[in-house]
Amino acid sequence: MALPTWDHPERLAVDSAPVPEYGAGSLADVLPTLAAGMSVPDMTAAIPELTPADRNCVFLIDGLGWEQLRAHPDEAPFMTSLLASSRGGTGRPITAGYPATTATSLASVGTGLPPGAHGLPGYTARNPATGELMNQLRWNPWTDPRAWQPHPTIFQLADAAGVHTAQVSSPTFQNTPLTKVALSGGTFHGRLSGEERMDLAAEQLAAGDRSLVYTYYAEVDGKGHRFGIDSDPWRGQLMYVDRLVQRLAEQLPPRSALYVTADHGMIDIPFDEQHRIDFDEDWELRAGVALLGGEGRARHVYAVPGAQADVLTCWREVLGEQFWIASRDEAIAAGWFGPRVDERVYARLGDVIAAARDDVLIIASEREPKESAMVGNHGSMTPVEQLVPLLQVRT
Asked: What is the C-alpha end-to-end distance of the chain, expressed in Å?
């Protein structure tokens, strides 16, 4: 996906943002395509390049974007050897969805729906019922998961259709609300080590004539946030997960397809005032703002009543050369959150939405000290964040 170029200082046009490939090549399209190939009712093969298999395994590596993988062939020789297999042998990536962040992407994977439909539209978003910001990764403050995300998961639909369905992940995630609303269905198997997960995923894949298995690894993302993607700890995690992928691939039973993907990519942002704009210290950006949601590269901005137009104007004047700045309705019309936004989701979106184009963050040093200190970041629609692999191994 090539970004258009602009001559500064013109403000970025909302419709110039590279919208994710919803409906044909996004994370939300992967499981419906695989389920359709296993004859699960009412599923659509949205990614036409993928051919059916009786047994399908999705291995999601948190934080491993397409561009990061291509830039590190020495650390990931096995996955590099699979690059030509991505997206059904086209050698192309798919897109994560907006925002490119874990809670949103995992919900898209598990439900087969874009963010505007499943309703997890960012790292934090306003709960219209309470007026509070809700962290959708940590589910804090608590709200009823099924009311927040009422749609069935693809795993539940596949299980009901007689497909052997399993998730293999860290035991930590078994009973989290995010798992319940995004990844439930069939059986959850908790295993601590990556090697145990790979071995059990292969066993579960072989356990049915038709099988759908999901497994997950988090620490590529964790090391990227803490140390950056230009660090030895991050490269060490990439080397480790590459061995995990090979371990799983070598154990696949007959009639299987393994798909290796990710929830988003990542970009390192320098620690200076030019690249990290501090909302908590900028009176112009704070004027008229009741709540600041989202994350540094994908902000939901909630205005005090009556101030929406002024906040939009101000944010465009201050940030419009570096961010795509849209009103809620403009972002919806441009398709940022998918082809539709459900009524229950509408007010969860910011009155103003800011998506980074340049290597820049909107931090909040006082209210978000941990997030503001992260080296690696993600969330927006640039290729480095948005593009993820869909590597394939078949037996």
From this structure: 30
d(CA 110, CA 120): 12
Share of the chain above pLDDT 70, in %: 98
Three-state SS at 190: strand
Helix (H) / strand (E) containing 223: helix 219-227
Show the beta-strand stretches assigned E in 170-295. 187-190, 211-217, 256-261, 267-268, 276-278, 289-295
Please answer whether residues 295 and 99 qualify as being in contact, where contact means their C-beta atoms are separated by less than 8 angstroms.
yes
Q: Amino acid identity of 383?
A: P
| Cα Dmax for the chain | 61
d(CA 55, CA 139): 32
Q: Are 198 and 251 in contact (CB under 8 A)?
A: yes
Backbone angles phi, psi at 201, to 5 degrees: -60, -40
Sequence-separated contacts (24+) of 4-10 with Cβ below 8 Å: 8/321, 9/321, 10/321
One-letter amino acid identity for 104? T
3-state DSSP of 148-189 = HCCCCCHHHHHHHCCCEEEEEECHHHCCCHHHHHHCCCCEEE
Contact 254, 394 (CB under 8 A): no
Give residue 249's Cα distance to chain centre: 24
Q: pLDDT tens across 4-21, in order?
A: 343 445 788 998 889 999
Per-residue model confidence as pLDDT tens digits over 277-323: 999 999 999 999 999 999 999 999 999 999 999 999 999 999 999 99
- The pair of structure tokens assigned to 179 is 């798992």
User: CA–CA separation, 349 vs 376, rounded Å?
Assistant: 24
Question: Which of 390, 388, 394, 363 lies closest to 96 in space, CA to CA?
Answer: 388
Positions of E strands within the chain? 55-61, 94-95, 124-126, 133-135, 164-169, 187-190, 211-217, 256-261, 267-268, 276-278, 289-295, 298-303, 323-327, 352-356, 361-363, 376-377, 387-388, 391-394
